[in-house]
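BUG: 3D viewer hangs when loading the predicted structure for this chain

Environment: internal workstation, default settings.
Expected: structure renders.
Actual: progress bar stalls at 90%.

Input used:
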Amino acid sequence: MTSKRVSRLMLPVTFAIWVVYGTLAGFGRWPLAVGLGLAASVLLLALAASRHVTIKLMDWTLLAYFLLAAITTFLIPLALFRTYSSIVIWLLYAGAAWISLLMGRPFTLQYARESTPPEHWKTQVFLHANRIITIVWALAFTANLLFVAAGLDPVFNSLWIAVALPLVSMGAASAFTSIYRRRLRARG
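Structure tokens produced before the viewer hung:
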């Protein structure tokens, strides 16, 4: 498999890992969900590295979550982790996004550089656009953190809050990214 193909498959495979994990965990198959999530994450990153594909911050975030989940499931069993695992997921993603902004290296630059000629990488338009897109994603991750936290409260305990709203949030961030990129390209 070529590096270009592996690079294009990273996001869909990452999404598939989360879907399988969420489905198995939702059906009470926690150890299997964590074990498969960890194995799939490691294999995905190993495949990327073997094809000289840049492993991005969000790929490392995926692996970090499954490492934490595996440690608290298999090595140092911590029942609370299972209860608060959704909070940990969104905390890691929100933290990674906000820290990338604070460090002046918005995480979306890693994705944008794959489809943008190198001569544009240091332009103010390119850098500003990626700051905006990263802020939108960071806000979505933060909103999801709040949604899943509210979903744990017995008053608001609902799949709509804890599952549907984060999916809508991710869809909205994705739509914004696509529309914003299209408008920027149309402007030249």
